[in-house]
Design brief:
By secondary structure, the chain is of the alpha/beta class. The protein is built from three helices and seven strands; from the N terminus they run E-H-H-E-E-E-E-H-E-E. Strands 5-4-3-7-6 form a five-stranded mixed beta sheet. A two-stranded parallel ribbon has the order 1-2. Helix 1 (about 10-35) runs antiparallel to helix 2 (about 45-70). The radius of gyration is 22 Å and the shape is elongated. Keywords: DNA-binding, Elongation factor, Protein biosynthesis, Transcription, Transcription regulation.
Amino acid sequence: MQKSPMTAQGLKRLEDELRQLKTEGRPAVIRAIAEARAHGDLSENAEYHAARERQSFIEGRVMELEGLISTAQVIDPSSLSGDRVQFGATVELVDEETDQERTYQIVGEHEADIKQGRLSVSSPLAKALIGKEVGDSVSVPAPGGDRTYEILKVTYR
């Protein structure tokens, strides 16, 4: 079984979601199914079918989260150091065309959230950054043409 690299915070978020689904989501959907059943004829009961669909989603997500958690390989970025980009690094970049600066932390696939500055290790940008160091430029294919970024700073927190 292949391990999935993940930060401790990413693992905690997955565990919190799993706990919430098991302690709140499941009981709520069971109550909704029981309430819908009490309304009578199930073949034309939209509430019942919606609750069953929700139950199916919750059970699927619980199984997915349990699988992700069981294969997680937690990597602590604060134990790493250096100027070379690797998993867990927080990287400050500047777009060489627009001079716009951005900061990303390279994290596991299942904890990525670009709006929060968490970049998936399997994304094209992260793949281009891995192994590079401060001062290097990387070119990344983008829908509007290749983008070039310069690495300004690499930190591990």
